[in-house]
Description:
In chain B, 74% of the residues lie in helices and 3% in strands. Chain B is mostly helical. Chain C has helices spanning 20-43, 46-71, 79-97, 101-126, 133-152, 155-158, 174-197, 202-209, 211-216, 221-247, 257-270, 276-295, 297-314, 319-324, 395-403, 425-430, 448-455, 475-483, 499-512, 529-544, 557-563, 581-586, 588-595, and strands spanning 164-165, 249-250, 338-342, 357-366, 369-379, 384-388, 410-415, 418-419, 433-436, 470-474, 517-521, 549-553, 566-571, 574-579.
Amino acid sequence: MTHPALQLQDVTSGYKASVVLRNLSFSIAAGDAFALLGKNGMGKSTLLKTIMGYLPKKSGTIHVDGNDITRLPPYRIARVGIAYAAQEQALFADLSVRDNLGLGLLKESWFDDRFAQIEPIFPVFKRRLSQYAGTLSGGEQKMLLVARALMMRPSIILLDEITEGLQPTVIERLAEGLLWERKTHGTTMLIVEQNVPFALKVADQYLVLKQGEIVDRGDAKNGSATDTIFGHLRV
Amino acid sequence: MILFLDILTTVAILFVVTAGLMMIFGVMKIVNFAHGALLTVGGYAAYVVTQLKLDPWLSWPLALVTGMLAGMVVESLIVRPLYKRPLDAILATWGLGIVMGQLIVIAFGREVQFVDAPIKGTWSIFGVDYSAYRLLLIPVACGLWATMTGLLNGTRFGVKTRAVIMNEDLARGLGIHSGRIRFITFSFGTGLGTLAGALITPLSSVDPNMGLNWLVSAFMLVMVSGHSMASLLVTCLVFGTFQVLVNTFVSPVLGGLAIAVLAAFTLRMRPKGFANG
Amino acid sequence: MVNAHATTELERDGSNPQPKTAKRRLPFLGLIGLVLLLVGPWLFDTYLLNILVKAYFLAIVAVTVDVLWGYTGYLTFGQSAFFGIGAYAAGLVFTHGGLTPGNVFLALGIAVVASVAVAWLVGWLSFYREASPFFATVISLVLPIVFVQLLLSGGTWTGSSSGLTGYETFDLSIEAWYWIAGSTLAVVSLLAWVVVRSDGGRLLAAIRDNESRCSYLGIDTAKVKTILLVVTAVVAGIAGFGYGSFSGVAAPELGGFVLGTELIIWVALGGRGTLWGPLIGAVLINVITAYLGSSMPFAWQLILGAAFVLVIVLLPQGLVPVLLRPFGLGQYAVHEPALVSRPLKMQSNAIPEMPALVMDGVAKHYGHLKVLEGIDLKANAGELLGLIGPNGAGKTTLMRCMSDGAERSSGTVSLCGNDIRKLPPDQCAKFGLGRKFQNANIFETLTVAECLRIAGTIRERPSLVRQAATLALPQYALDVVSTTGLDKKLGVAAKDLSHGEQQALELAMVLAQEPRLILLDEPTAGLTKTERTQIGHVLSSLAHKYKLCCLLVEHDLDFVEEIATRIVVLHQGKIVMEGSFADVVNSELVKTIYAGSSHAMQDPV
């Protein structure tokens, strides 16, 4: 039997003394994309950081394709095939676009090949490879974050609120790019978002997180999904 | 003209002495207080070469290798366990410096020793006779700067190292093994420290405490300069000039203090020093 | 004496309390020391007495280093400079002026005044607002180097590298010197011990644990540290004066950085933060060094250096506490005072008509990046404002601009009628602002009672001598403490509390400073349902009953709906709406902001 791409079992984690995620369990099959929704402070970013190894797990396990990654440090988790792009994480402003894109690669020689693959989604970078990443506009920087993750040819992509502050056309672009990535490479995705329409467009299913627990899940393509979700996000 | 050459050679010497310390400070965010002892070890490496009547040029590679080996041991045993306690890491490297100093005294005694310089005599530059070896240090420093800049900017390892310097967490998330980078950089930094010791010893002499005098100036410079080779060069230029001027026109004693005092006030006024941005 | 007060003996790991005998052990140890002091001259030969006198003077300096480093967290290599100042004061005056009663006072006076002046300068250099602790350490290392260089360049006047020798000094027997040195050490140590264990002395540990929190409680930490440095400098200077008078030699090594680093080694090996550890360590090491100095000088230094490195890496608490632990020493007696209500001190100064907060045209930018723009906000006593908005809207930046005068780029902020200009957080706190941070920002190694007492420092000065039997807090702070059960945990170290308890403790601490305006950053983050309800009641009563002005940043809108009197919506650095909860929640604007389809509102990329 095939293993799910990502499986969390009973994961509890938080910062220092506090507990943010409580006994969280879910799994994502290979090639699926989940949208992780919920109000701020509910634990979405914490979940991604926990998967990525930045936060220690107080209990529970995480498996990627059947392999236990619970105790691995972040750089090993990245090499296992998980790429993490977060809007708060920034880039290396003083490094070139090329360096930023290429740092996640295991071998420098793969750059040209990989770049050619992502170029259709992000044509803007072709002529800016030697520019310092810090001089790009806000939207371009966000796109660079996603491009960098795609360059790593990961099996799983974790995205944390990357549409924050972006223009509608750019967001549209990103959605198309992610859908293309899914279609071409079958990449599994876990997308944390405040922008519900974007998230539902890219993902197959959604999870709603509240107080560190999953309170609802469903089919993203279901017509009433939006209403259900807004119910949870009710202002 | 002599003043000009004094300034240039002083800047070169300062750069050579601080380069290794800066590598370590940039990547690991700690000041390696054993740096003074490493300088001394390098000086004694040159002494050993002199005693064995070997070619003085050999002291350079000998010092470099000794320093790198020492660095590998120190990083694994002392610095790595103290990763989360940076102030204690500084103290531990200080203690290490003391231990190294004592070992040197036991091995070589306390007396001041002299080493042979790879080139002797003077050269005639623009009408003045100036110590040839001292002048040699200018191209050596330039070469060192070029090598390090080339390494950092031109190689994949260099890019990864700069990434770790800028944002270690982000680098780790991209699959970069920052632990290994720290290990390599530390060893390289200590190697540069001993090499610097071997380079500067022919200028005066070597005794168990010679490194100590450089230690404070070196890390004051590193603290002012921030994290890039370019800013280190600028810092050495400014402070080196200042020191020579004080030495020449005020008093040699105060010249010895010039760097430390100027650096203290610079940092008080501008906590980021000369770092870009 | 400390043990006379009501004390409860609790071991930190919660196991059985210590037997009563342990309580007596520390004073017992002190008694042994005093006995040795008295009978020393009959027990020891002249050579050893000589060594001990010098060791005692040096131990005094070691004690000051422990107070500065072990207790306050300021790693200093520079105390030797003050020791050297004292020694040279004696040497210079007696060499150039001879030994007369007038000169004795002159020399002592110079030792004190010079120490004060230099310590003040060092404090100014080291303890400013954004200073890193590392920078302070570096300055402390530069100090003795500068001092020695000045001595070396002094020519015959200062004796240059050989120093001053053979000057006329007090004609006292070695026994007399022994008693003088020993009793000075005893007095200094006792005073230090009393202060460090007193309620006020815990402030040092608070600064070491969390200096920023102290600032936000209204404590001018730079001033405290500078004063501490001045006092310890004078003590070290006097010790140096004694040493210089006794030995008849004032050499540059006495003020150099080698001695400075040796002091650190003695304190580290002896046990930083214990006082008696460094004292014993300093004396022992000096005695051993004197005896081994001739037979195996280098090996001994090597052993010391290696021991130092090992201790730092493996045994940071030091050797002496570890060696003496089997005898029951080294456990702190925990002091649990009784809680008492106190009337609000601020009430007499309150001007109820002034709004608690007025912000006019406040903006904040980093270069071209505008984080806040055109903020006009007013808040009055008794109001409970909910500040809401999506991530990145600028809420935390806004709070920072309220609590720290240096933060904003333009505009004015007034707290209770006082313009905060560019003033630091401790001044803002004194104007009546209390800030509760998102992550429980407390003093980890202090007990609950100690945290609360330090928190009230600007209203009720803790004694520098006593451990008071009572802890007086304003009623609303007491309410928080009793509602959340912290009154049963007064003796527990703050780091051992649960997350919810730590949050409650921080809130109580902020209330202890009697603020007129409280800023709360996501107070419900990470709390259980019960804890949320509790804190909701607390905040409501603060606003409605005690007429405080509360400003909350919150994401839990159910929580905000329950208690807020007014909502302010922040989006992309601007206030886009203000009003009652119902108005705000039902507005189209806010719905679009939160639903994430706010493309129309975005600035072009």
